[in-house]
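User: I'm preparing a small set of examples for a lab meeting where we compare how different chains pack in three dimensions. I only have the primary sequence for this one, and I'd like the structure in token form so I can line it up with the others. Please keep the answer compact; I'll paste it straight into my notes.
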Amino acid sequence: MTDSARERRRMTALLTSKGVLTSPWLREAVETVPRELFLQPGVFLDEGRIWRPVTPLDTDPHEWLELAYSVGTLTTQLDGHLTADRAAGPVEGVPTSSSTDPATVVGMIELLDLAAEHRVLEIGTGTGYSTALMCHRVGEDNVTTVEVDPQVAARADAALEAVGCSTWTMTGDGLLGHPPRAPYDRVIATCAVRRVPHTWVRQTKPGGIILSTVGAWPWGTGLAKVTVGDDETANGAIIGPSSFMQARAQALTPLAGDLSARTAYADGERPALVSPFALEEWMPAFLAQLAAPGAQFVRATRSDGAPLRYLFDPARESFAEFCADGDGWTVRQGGPASLWDDVERALIAWQDEGSPGIEAVRLRVTDRSHVYWIDGSPSLRWEHRLT
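Assistant: Understood. Below is the structure token output for the 387-residue chain.
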């Protein structure tokens, strides 16, 4: 087998030069842990709407290592079951597991500020690569990692054993944490969640840190970093944009069927004060999810090529449909919730405040609600009650 030490050193130098990798112990971990062992039995490369399988068995060893140490996300599973070694050729599919790009992985671990004695709970084992990096700091017995997919968990456990990390690799719903090994000093999620589960808060020591991507859309999600208090609450902020696959239990079901039938009966229509195209930008999309939790943004095209945009909230049986009208847009709304009224109000208030970045958003987690706000902006405050 071709030695990957040179590639590990190259990736370490690259991440260091980008300012992502700063801790001496983590630099040593990146130089030590062979990422290629966590990519078995292969990966899928995105070629538009088609995924091309690549395995180490049918790839030149040097090319395989170059791929393994590229600073990018590598998809390892499609549709909840298909791995590269089982694909006869290029296939269509939806990614359901991946090896996240090393810059993101390393950046998140740096944010944990790990000490050697810390106990860590990881939600979403994936390939196990990030698990191995953290074991390098706190030891294999202090890391508990939870993966919902039994096949993914088994492959990760085998890879971890291969590099000498006999850690606690559990199969289960990570949204529930792992009470038998609690309490934890740090909780890190490598999937996106609609909100930080209070179970994680309860299983974290006072002063402990929880790091997780929050949001339900594939974009417009933020990285939440909160510190747990003595009263089983957690306070912190959205510290930047972040993108991960959704936790499987919370993944949105794509809307199917005739969209025109879903929007046939509107309660009213009016000119839109803000273009729906704003929701294709990161911060407005994040605000839209705060203002209208449960809503989905859908893009479509009319038969004449004109763009259509929709907001749907199936649980509240509500919709907003946007139709191009000259240089502007008309919005038709139906159902008990006026989705666009809520979103538009938030976007206008945000613009009036000078359009601050996602880092301005603060967050408080309790056993009854999540509260998001931007300091000094009473109109930019949302409380999501837990049901």
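A couple of notes for your slides: The first strand starts at residue 43 and ends at 47. Residues 9 and 304 are 54 Å apart (CA to CA).

User: Perfect, thanks.
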